[in-house]
Design brief:
This protein is of the alpha/beta class. It contains 17 helices and twelve strands.
């Protein structure tokens, strides 16, 4: 079996004699054909090829194929952002009148997408506490439930998702499990091996690794049998009149889900990743295993440092043996989780904010999971639109700081954290 380090370098683009060794950027909106009939077959999905970059592009497809190989899937597609990937992943199998279940601990932007925007489209999402036992979670399923959604490592609470528990629940009700694997990346976790059916990524984060290109990706395992539950998924199992009556599950087999998402959703909604960004992403993927190892090493050292500080109220990082998610992390991610941890300063919200403002190396930015150390205060930033009740439901404490540990010298990072703590006066 080819190691993931090798896949990160060699999958996707395999140049033939005389071709560019590095993946080319196909910076073209359109592609030429010698006859009308040849192009017509592309529009009818009767032939493979490219005709307009809003649907597919050779650079994008090569990078999607690399991520697909890394995750162990059968088909993948790039999107313009991780938010678009999560939207497409659910909307590809849900329509007005449908329902799906999601963990309440997911990223605030995804929470709003599912709970507000998709609700306006007639698709209802029930948010659940992912720590509940199976018998309690069972109660949230309905006859019109079409999917279950979670994050491998939640953003920003860094909780670890119990794949096997949710896979059992989803599959017992005949629905797929969709997992956002952004923080762990396939270097540290491959959700398909634990029962997930579809994986999404914000490639903007660790995969790109340098905060230069926004993007997303959807990967299908090919394991979910859409025809077995044909009545639940008419979009895949009945004729699509916009493509002359093609039934995706019959025509494309294991490639049905991604074919529909590309040919139908990308055609109509157009959230395509630019070939330039896909090129940057490919460069980032080549060094991903090296960076993830360093991120995890640094984050563990920082977490241990913070845990020993009197002014720090609490630290959550699944690499710590004292963390409640340590056992799950060892099970699903034995090589390490990610470089993101959360903690709070004694004195609450205001003390945490004062501490952040004293840092020199660590930047206060909206971003997370790139080479540079950065942090933010979710209650004031990414989750600002959520009510106090919603924040509590999502596990976002008022003093929570999300710290994304970079790949700098860890002694320098710890020194920066120490000098900032020294300047904060804690009033308990």
């Amino acid at each position: 079996m080819t190691g993931i380090e090798t896949k990160c370098i060699h999958e996707g683009w395999k140049p033939k004699q005389g071709e560019a060794r590095q993946l080319p950027i196909y910076q073209s909106t359109t592609f030429k054909y010698d006859s009308s009939d040849a192009m017509g077959k592309l529009f009818d999905l009767e032939a493979d090829g490219y005709f307009y970059t809003r649907l597919q592009n050779p650079t994008n497809d090569a990078v999607a194929a690399k991520i697909c190989a890394m995750e162990g899937g059968v088909a993948a597609m790039l999107t313009s952002s991780g938010q678009a990937a999560n939207f497409y992943a659910v909307f590809n199998i849900c329509e007005a009148g449908d329902h799906f279940i999601a963990s309440s601990s997911i990223y605030g932007g995804t929470y709003n997408l599912f709970g507000v925007t998709m609700k306006k489209m007639g698709i209802e999402c029930t948010f659940v506490d992912q720590e509940l036992p199976e018998e309690e979670l069972e109660k949230y399923f309905r006859p019109n439930t079409k999917a279950v959604f979670g994050e491998t490592i939640t953003n920003p609470t860094v909780s670890v998702f119990d794949f096997e528990k949710f896979a059992r629940l989803a599959h017992s009700h005949g629905v797929p499990l969709i997992v956002d694997n952004t923080f762990a990346t396939p270097v540290n976790c491959r959700p398909f091996e634990w029962g997930a059916d579809i994986v999404t990524h914000s490639t903007t984060k660790y995969m790109d690794g340098h905060a230069v290109g926004v993007g997303g990706c959807i990967v299908d395992s090919g394991n979910f049998d859409w025809m077995k539950y044909a009545e639940k998924y008419p979009g895949l199992t009945t004729p699509d009149e916009s493509y002359h009556g093609i039934t995706y599950a019959e025509r494309f087999g294991k490639g049905a889900y991604i074919t529909k998402a590309t040919a139908q959703l990308m055609r109509d909604l157009g959230s395509v990743q630019s070939p330039q960004n896909a090129f940057y992403l490919n460069l980032g993927l080549e060094s991903l295993p090296l960076r993830m190892e360093r991120h995890c090493q640094n984050a563990l050292a920082v977490a241990k440092f913070l845990q020993a500080q009197e002014k720090v109220a609490w630290v959550h990082y699944a690499g710590l043996e004292s963390d409640p998610y340590y056992a799950l992390a060892q099970k699903y991610m034995p090589k390490g989780t990610c470089g993101v941890l959360s903690f709070g300063i004694k004195g609450g919200r205001e003390a945490s904010i004062r501490f952040m403002d004293q840092l020199k190396f660590a930047s206060i930015v909206t971003h997370v999971a790139d080479a540079k150390t950065c942090l933010l205060h979710p209650a004031s930033h990414t989750h600002r639109q959520m009510t106090d009740e919603q924040l509590a439901e999502a596990g976002v404490a008022p003093d929570l700081i999300r710290l994304s540990v970079g790949i700098e010298n860890v002694d320098d990072l710890i020194a920066d954290l120490k000098q900032a703590l020294d300047k904060v006066t804690v009033v308990e």
